[in-house]
Specification:
The protein is an alpha+beta fold. The chain has one domain. The protein is 22% helix and 25% strand. A hairpin with a 4-residue loop joins strand 18 and strand 19. Helix 8 runs antiparallel to helix 9.
Length: 551
């Protein structure tokens, strides 16, 4: 992913400050909206964030050498099926909208579409590692359980001319959401750089070998920039749909413009658990997680750092979460005594106070709250959508039928070119959509719902680790087991502060699903109040015409 800017015109600092002020107001509103989750999220905030990355992965942040990057956050997701591969990219940008542009190498036939912030917000919140203090049993006539303190490991999210000459073919021009798009193809080294430079993309000569390498390998390129009348607040995630299975992440483009270390979070959606093929794979040793009752923090951040550094000389990806069926199926609460009567991890509540116990429901609820459902200004029956999504766990979570997209490549679900139905025994992908909220439907197309896993991979790669693209593979059979993001610390430090000098920390089970994990009602999406806060709006803000009807 390449992010290219025109030379700065001196407004970046002002815009960045304004953006920070706007984001702060969203955070306050979101906490108020979340109700039940908000007090619990405050506990996590008090404990502090576990780790901070040296530099967020921001694709190729190509800027003049004298200018700092203004891409402040970046998330990616990849869904893989025999029919198609979809790459989502969410960008948080704090600069002048006129200076923003994005370039991605793609295989032939790729289509670009606009996606929703809610998709990333739900995935981030549901999969972020949460550490809970151990239960302490005092050696007294009575005893009590401590185990309500939580620490979140989620970091802050953090009209053109033809030009270019005959060496570059313009395959397609179009508009998606707030962006103008162009798809380019060439087999001439240096030609793409020339085309981009002529069209005001700020290309440094040192970047040409990276782009030429993709050209030599037969890649096309998609470039996007904000439309002239669009601002930073109207930026949306994009997704690129490529025919066939292609489990590759273009890390070489990520290398452009990064610092000595780059942090990357990648959500993988596919049948079975996935892992890195050409990098090392790692797991944090959860049996060594300790909780200090004085500082109210764990040592998870340190364990995570040393695990990544010691595995394959730092060229490794850490599996922080991997659960089968989590998109559509409720996940049992790993420690029942902490769920206040609910048997499953809860991801928040809907406006009527009903619990959201699947990621699909959390995604829908977040999308409705973000006003991402009716972008075409047509009324949407959100109550019907809520009812439909709540039934996925009953009628589709365990389905072995293939999810089929009845629409031609690049056509929206409401296109007249779509087929009226799919073959018997298959599930229409449109079932998983609610008007403009189509990410879930696109992610599941070509897959069998009961076999789909969500895997969260994290890396802190040195610049040298970005010399090759990431290739994924299905994990071997012995690794096809769940990895929970809820970790109950097993080692108590300074536990005497809780009930005197004689304490005996309880050792929790070490076998079976949910070992070393814990959950609190609502805390399954403390991330909805932490990781996703910067994108959430209050109901008051929802009434704002400028936000509700972006133009």
């Amino acid at each position: 992913m390449g992010y290219y800017r025109r030379p700065t015109r001196g407004r970046r600092g002002q815009n960045a400050s304004a953006t920070r002020r706007r984001e702060h107001s969203k955070e306050v509103s979101a906490v108020k909206r979340l109700g039940l989750i908000a007090p619990l999220a405050a506990t996590a905030a008090a404990a502090g964030l576990l780790f901070a990355s040296d530099a967020d992965a921001c694709g190729a942040c190509v800027v003049p050498a004298t200018d700092p990057t203004v891409v402040t956050g970046h998330r990616m997701a990849l869904s893989i099926s025999p029919d198609q591969t979809v790459l989502w990219d969410q960008i948080q940008y704090a600069g002048d909208p006129a200076e923003f542009a994005w370039v991605l190498p793609v295989k032939e036939g790729a289509k670009i579409e606009v996606a929703s912030d809610a998709f990333f917000e739900a995935l981030e919140a549901a999969t972020t590692v949460q550490v809970i203090q151990p239960t302490v049993t005092c050696d007294q006539p009575f005893s009590f359980g401590c185990g309500s303190a939580l620490e979140s490991a989620g970091a802050d999210f953090a009209g053109e001319g033809t030009g270019g000459g005959p060496a570059v073919d313009v395959i397609h021009r179009g508009t998606v959401g707030p962006y103008s798009t162009v798809t380019l193809s060439t087999d001439t080294p240096g030609a793409l750089n020339t085309w981009l430079t002529e069209h005001n993309y700020n290309i440094d000569p040192s970047q040409q070998p990276i782009i030429d390498a993709y050209v030599a390998e037969g890649f096309d390129f998609i470039a996007i920039r904000l439309l002239p009348d669009k601002g930073v607040r109207e930026m949306k995630p994009v997704r690129v749909v490529t025919p066939g299975a292609n489990p590759t992440l273009p890390l070489r483009m990520v290398a452009i413009g990064t610092g000595p270390t780059v942090a990357i979070t990648l959500f993988v959606i596919g049948e079975g658990r996935w892992e890195a093929e050409n990098f090392g794979n790692a797991r944090v040793p959860t049996d060594l997680v300790a909780w200090d009752f004085v500082t109210n923090k764990s040592n998870y951040a340190e364990l995570r750092r040393t695990t990544l550094e010691s595995t394959n000389k730092g060229l490794s990806w850490l599996t922080a979460y991997s659960i089968q069926g989590a998109l559509l199926r409720p996940i049992p609460s790993p420690i029942p005594s902490f769920n206040f009567g609910f048997g499953n991890i809860q991801y928040g509540t809907d406006p009527n106070g009903n619990p959201l116990d699947t990621i699909a429901e959390a995604y829908l609820d977040q999308g409705i709250e973000n006003l991402e459902v009716d972008l075409d200004m047509q009324p949407v029956d959100t109550a019907l959508c809520r009812d439909t999504f709540s039934q996925f766990e009953v009628n589709l979570a365990d389905s072995g039928g293939l999810v089929e997209n009845p629409c031609p490549a690049g056509e929206p679900f409401n296109s007249p070119n779509c087929a009226q139905s799919v073959d018997a025994g298959k599930t229409d992908a449109r079932t998983f959509a609610c008007d403009d909220l189509t990410d879930l439907a696109v992610a599941l197309a070509g897959s069998h719902p009961r076999d789909v896993w969500i895997t969260r991979l994290e890396a802190e790669l040195p610049r040298a680790g970005l010399a090759q693209d990431l290739t994924l593979r299905a994990a071997p059979p012995e690794k096809q087991e769940p990895v929970s993001n809820w970790i109950q610390a097993k080692i108590a430090v300074n536990a005497d502060t809780q009930c005197g000098n004689v304490v005996a920390p309880t050792v929790w089970p070490t076998r079976g699903f949910g070992s070393n994990t814990g959950a609190l009602i609502g805390l399954g999406l403390a991330g909805m109040a932490l990781a996703a806060l910067t994108r959430r709006l209050s109901k008051t803000a929802a009434a704002s015409p400028s936000r509700r009807r972006p133009r």
